[in-house]
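B., you asked whether I could sanity-check this one before it goes into the benchmark set. Here's the sequence:
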Amino acid sequence: MITCPWEPAKYLIFSSNVPSILFYALIPGMIVGALLGFFVYLKNRKYLPALILLVISILFFAWGFFDLILFATNNPFAVIVLWAYTILTEVLIYAFSLYLSYVFLFKRDASLKIKAFIFFLLAPVIAVLPTPLNLKGVNLADCTAIENKFIIFYSYSLEIFFALLILAMALKKYRISRDSSEKKQAILFAFGISLFLITFSSGNIIGSITGDWVTSQYGYFGMPIFIGFLAYLIVKYKAFNVKLIASQALVVGLIIGIGAQFFFIQNTTNQILTAITLAIAIIFGYQLVRSVKLEVQRKEELEKLSTLLAQANDKLHQLDRAKSEFISIASHQLRTPLTSIKGFGSLLLEGTYGQVPDTQRHALEKIYVSNERLIQLVEDLLNISRMEAGRMEFDFQEAQIEDLIQEAADTLELSAKAKSLYLHWQKPALALPKTKIDITKIKEVISNMIDNAIKYSQRGGVTVRAEKGSFFDHEAREQKNVIRVTVSDTGIGMDKEELESIFNKFERGKQVSHYHTDGTGLGMYVGKKIVEAHHGRIWAESDGKGKGSRFILELPIS
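And here's what the prediction gave me:
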């Protein structure tokens, strides 16, 4: 049997005729391309671009394997057969690259017309594949096939045409897309795949024209570059609907890059050092990928929890708005009958409809007091609804604070007497300066302060004082003059924790339910919001449990 002038190949791809650069240029791209193709496909088997990428990676692996055998073999018959298949796989790589580009860029499958057009262009190459029109023979001096110039020219022209079509599609996608992320992906993808195809063609064209197939091997570096672009797209933009951690891509690339050096390193010492380096890279790379992967998983879990929390929060806001609307509607409906009860009850107690017997008067007084508390509760609920809806309105007028305190004390005097408590209003001897307030709302606040003092006092009573005072405003860095109203009681008192929370919504003291069961914890919350809207202050003080409490209200002087 006639053979080419070198020894037969070992393991198909090893012989003295194979240049070291071929292994280094081709094998890393073959391996990384196949790994990436299978990785992407296995992560998303139903995604068409993933399937096409897998086909391209398999075709490139097959083409590279055929090329290695062609360099290593000294069998002319093997050269004829495999050379024909390299031509076919080469044009198929370009055809599927065009198909991948279309599907990836435009997010849809190519039409039947486009597929038929691609097949029509490939038909001449496929038709002449098994005939002498493709390859005329073998040059025994270097075991290269004698190519049909027309078929080779047609194949290379087709490859260049496909590469130009890809660039044209990317340009179109860039122009029609309004999403900056899609534009960047289109540019990166087109640049990466075009660079791969152009360098791939350039190497083969140089080999066909000059016969120097060793120099042409440098064109194979285009595949690793394309893989780098794909890895970046996957890491940065989750292209192909795949999540890839940057450390994974980096470690795999590093290991393959180190391992590829074995194909051209001849020195034994260097081979040992490279083996040690490769082992270290594998061990530490595995640990790095594992730790980063765990960190990414934790981050994704936190993001999912954050999303669920945000959704739950939105639902709570919706429920809160619905609750506020219900409270507002219900409170408005309750307001009218309660006002009527108050009016008629007052007329009965005053004797407008005739003298009321003492036994009935006692019952009427209880009804009147309970009704007053209901009116206050409804007003608190309405105020909360207005606050939460941003519809709280104030009618500021100059007023004398003593008049408001007097009205509140007169209204609540019955409540104090019913519990055998005193209610002392220590009116100042001289009139206090006027203050600009919403009279109705500040009266509500003062009434609530006195009412609470009565509710939570079992003996003794309540003392109300009003005076002119001042305090240093640290934020404004100035002394401010105020009207100070203090409501002191001899009731159950509060500890430090209760003093800090008493003005929160729906917050009540720890022991108050033993003395007064129908409280809501809204009065102080509403009062604080109203006072703050007046640029005033309100707080509570207590010397401890069983030692009474003091509620202090300060309003700026006009």
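One thing to flag: The chain has a mean pLDDT of 83. Otherwise nothing jumped out at me.
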